[in-house]
Amino acid sequence: MEFVIPIPSAPVLPVAESTACFPVRRIYCVGRNYADHAREMGGNPDREPPFFFGKPSDTVVPRGGDIAYPPLTANLHHEVELVVALGGGGRDIPAAKALACVYGYAVGIDLTRRDLQAKFKDKGQPWEMAKGFDQSAPVSAVMPASRCGHPTSGAIWLSVDGTDRQRGDLAQMTWDVAEVIAHLSAYVALAPGDLIFTGTPSGVGALVRGNRVCCGIEGIGELEIVLV
């Protein structure tokens, strides 16, 4: 088969303690999945059905590192999240069977152009450009579930230049991983290679050029980025 342009390379994530790689198909994100974050964003902290948005797969930055401060924003925010890496999929997956689809877990940062998001929301416009810009999804190596299990609790944290910004526990998620997969699979057919960002605890805030951001999740790993 002849192609008119070179085939783009597929984004991949390293697998922890291995030479293997995890190919990334799609990226889904859950909005406001921690009650305290919903409150700080002016939303309803009650257990309402989850909502989802996406990022292009090539926004992934494997293992973090230097991140270019994006254009058209003066209010770039950090959001540390547990990332689910799917090894299976399907449509209308029952929550009781959802964890069988999980290959592993990683630490991710959902970078957000908060000022653009607010402007788009005020106008009733889509806000993908506030979320899906270049390098907006740094992700650590994937820890296989065969080694870490399926965490339902554990510290999740983020610091900027050594100062704590976010600190919570996975047990605070409004919808747990199995429930998130079940809800999301009602909208779309999930498949191996999909990543799901599962929401962030409170404490999100602005970043400036030169900031060093360190974050981690107990039993999963750590991630570091520098805004340049």
UniProtKB/TrEMBL annotation:
Name of one Pfam family that matches: FAA_hydrolase
Domain Fumarylacetoacetase-like C-terminal: 27-224
Swiss-Prot/TrEMBL keywords: Metal-binding
InterPro entries: Fumarylacetoacetase-like_C, Fumarylacetoacetase_C_sf
Name of this chain's protein: Fumarylacetoacetase
Species name: Geothrix edaphica
